[in-house]
Specification:
This protein is mainly alpha-helical. It is about 80% helix and about 0% strand. It contains 11 helices and no strands. α3 (about 75-90) packs antiparallel against α11 and α9 (about 250-280) runs antiparallel to α11 (about 300-310). The longest helix has about 40 residues, at about 120-160. The protein is globular, with a radius of gyration of 26 Å. The termini are far apart. The model is unreliable at about 1-30 and about 280 (pLDDT under 50). This is G-protein coupled receptor. It comes from Biomphalaria pfeifferi. Keywords: Membrane, Receptor, Transmembrane, Transmembrane helix.
């Protein structure tokens, strides 16, 4: 009887030791080695610099939202700006993901470099849920944050090249009818081509994180600048003014400044992400670039503030 209990205890102890050894050798849980020469800079960026700048950006975005609400969300431009500020705020939640920072830089580690939660069961579950929630909100905020500037650019191009006026009732009717038809068509297509749509979503996310938004906005700004210059020149000829006509380029200048800021920050982020994805042989470079990428991504809040101040 005693020997059987001893054998069972020895077997369970060996199984426990084997499971711990398998955990420590699991490459899926392994993030990167942890020498002090570059873990400390990563920790400073990820745990202090990025969250602090994100809080500052959230404060600026709250001011923008207050200004937009006071102005009134009656124009398409204001609605798009409101959506842009909201998406930028959601984007910053990725830098405030305390669960992910504990997962990477937590003090309780069975082995340095593991990205795991090694606390009690309830705490591990809470940290995991918070990490997934913050990551989900941040991912879609970052994706929408790159798509809305392109929509704003398209709206400005249409306003400059094809100026038109329509009644509010007609606009609401046409928009609602188009939305119903699009929802019916997309629902039917979704049922029949679910796997295709999943693949399309992946390509869409990759495209929005690439250089495409930057190139699109730069091209749109060039087209808008050309059209505005031509319109001003034609207006001078029609009025036959000898002196130079006074023209306030406030809207166009604001658009160009914000697009320039967006282009610089997004280009740096896209370049760093591309370099980091192919730098599998250089973990030091890879993870430093990822943290610096998040740092540059935060600065996009300034473009919303510049836009709103021009209202």
């Amino acid at each position: 009887m005693g020997n059987s209990l001893l054998n069972n205890g020895t077997t369970s102890l060996m199984d426990s030791t084997k499971s711990q050894n398998s955990l420590r050798s699991d490459s899926n849980l392994y993030c990167y080695p942890a020498p002090d020469d570059y873990m400390f800079p990563l920790q400073v960026l990820g745990c202090f610099v990025n969250p602090l700048l994100s809080l500052v950006g959230l404060f600026i975005n709250v001011l923008c939202l207050v200004i937009l609400v006071k102005v009134g969300l009656k124009k398409t431009t204001y609605i798009l700006l409101f959506a842009l500020v909201m998406s930028d705020s959601l984007n910053m939640f990725e830098n405030l993901d305390f669960g992910n920072k504990i997962r990477i830089f937590g003090t309780l580690k069975s082995k340095p470099g593991y990205c795991t939660f090694e606390y009690e069961s309830e705490m591990n579950q809470f940290l995991y849920v918070s990490q997934q929630l913050f990551g989900f909100v941040g991912l879609w905020g970052r994706t929408i944050n790159t798509s809305i500037p392109m929509i704003i650019t398209i709206k400005r191009i249409l306003a400059v090249y094809f100026p038109c006026r329509s009644s509010t009732g007609g606009s609401l009717t046409s928009n609602y009818s188009g939305k119903v038809v699009a929802n019916v068509a997309s629902s039917d297509f979704l049922v029949k081509n679910f796997s295709v749509l999943n693949t399309f979503t992946v390509y869409a996310l990759e495209t929005l994180a690439s250089f495409v938004p930057t190139c699109f906005m730069c091209l749109g700004c060039i087209l808008i600048g050309i059209k505005v210059s031509v319109s001003v020149s034609q207006r001078r000829k029609l009025t036959r003014e000898k002196k130079k006509q006074k023209w306030s380029p406030r809207t166009t200048r604001t658009l160009l400044i914000t697009c320039l800021i967006f282009a610089i920050t997004h280009a740096i982020t896209s370049l760093i992400s591309a370099i980091a994805s192919v730098s599998t042989q250089a973990p030091l470079l890879t993870y430093r670039l990822v943290e610096i990428s998040a740092f540059f991504n935060i600065s996009s809040c300034t473009q919303q503030f510049l836009r709103v101040l021009r209202l």
